[in-house]
# Entry
Amino acid sequence: MATSEVINLTTVKRDPTFVDRLTPAGRLLSRCIQCGTCTASCPAAPAMDLTPRQMWRLAQLGFQDQVLHSKAMWLCSLCYICHVRCPRGIPLTETIVKLKQLALQEGIGEWRESTAFYRAFSDVMRRYGRMREIEFMVRYFLATNPLAALGYAKLGLTLLGRGKAHLELPRLGGEGRLDRLFERVAELEGQR
Ligand code: SF4
Ligand code: SF4
# Structure
């Protein structure tokens, strides 16, 4: 949805209980005064289809589909700037994490590249305890568009040539060390 699009409130489906599922903010979102501090502070806002301020207003009003189908949440880098600057004390960043969870649970697939990026990144981190770039890229392109990898072949060869990426399996010493952390996060998410 374009930020300038006018929404006809009489025809668009709304779910007034949507905010109740947006932990931890939930009903705290009703405190939002639309001051725009979150948008003005957000380094990713210029690239978003909905600005943070617009996204929270739509959530307040129960426009679940418009929020969950937007790309905004996937561009959020979880930098916490909006979170700490919101004058109404709304836990915005953690609520964006919940939005991502809901979008994944609903099977919303418009932003498959973004979700594949997150999955590939966390899978590699869990496996080695740190990033292994080659495996990350292979996982990402296999999950999205393997042919697109050809466009990065020259860059990959340059990185290999300069020792910035390595083909061999790393001896990182972090294998399995993050398993408990990932399991604990999954437990906490299941409790929400
Ligand atoms: S900074 Fe807080 S109060 Fe201001 S628009 Fe954003 S969410 Fe609403
Ligand atoms: S946490 Fe996300 S939405 Fe908030 S300022 Fe940072 S990038 Fe923007």
Remarks:
- The two ends are 29 Å apart (CA to CA).
- The mean pLDDT is 87.
- The chain has two domains: 18-105, 112-191.
- Residues 41-44, 52, 76-83, 92-93, 96 surround iron/sulfur cluster (ligand 2) (CB under 6 Å).
